[in-house]
Amino acid sequence: MAYRLTVRHGSRVTHRKFERLDDAVEALEQSAKEIRAAGPLRDRKMIREFPAAQQVAGRVEISTGGLLRRGRDAGVDVMGDGRFVPFAGGIRRRELDPGSDGPFEAVRRALVG
């Protein structure tokens, strides 16, 4: 099975493919930490105020599906305050409980299970 890693940081989007889940999750963790290392976001004020904690600084996602076949999607949102929020699902995302193993293991569990 192939794993496709998509990294969204600002307006940049990159894709990489991996043959092993372990390699994909390792790259996901590294990419998420690089996004967080760029520093926190500032609060934004448009019509209303958006604190950094409510803004997504970047999204790192692993997908197992192809163009014509369904697969699994899971990843991590890097929030503007530096938190990692694991999620599962493509269009209908649901937040995952990181438990004691942390957000990256939650992503691995979602892709395996």
SSE layout and pairings?
Elements: E1 3-9, E2 12-18, H1 21-37, E3 44-45, E4 49-50, E5 56-63, E6 73-79, E7 84-88, E8 94-95, H2 103-112
Antiparallel strand pairs: 1-2, 1-5, 3-4, 5-6, 6-7, 7-8
Main traits of this protein?
alpha+beta, six-stranded antiparallel β-sheet, two-stranded antiparallel sheet, 24% helix, globular
Count of the separate structural domains: 1
Count of strand segments? 8
Oligomer: single chain
Measured as a percent range, the helix fraction is 10-25%
Rg, rounded, reads 14 Å
**In one word, what is the shape?**
globular
Cα(first) to Cα(last) distance is 14 Å
The biggest sheet, with number of strands, parallel, antiparallel or mixed sense and barrel status, is: 6 strands, antiparallel
Strand content: 35-45%
Q: Which stretches are low in confidence, meaning pLDDT under 50 for 5 or more residues running? A: none
> What is the H-and-E element order?
EEHEEEEEEH
Q: Let me know the average pLDDT.
A: 92
Number of alpha- plus pi-helical segments: 2
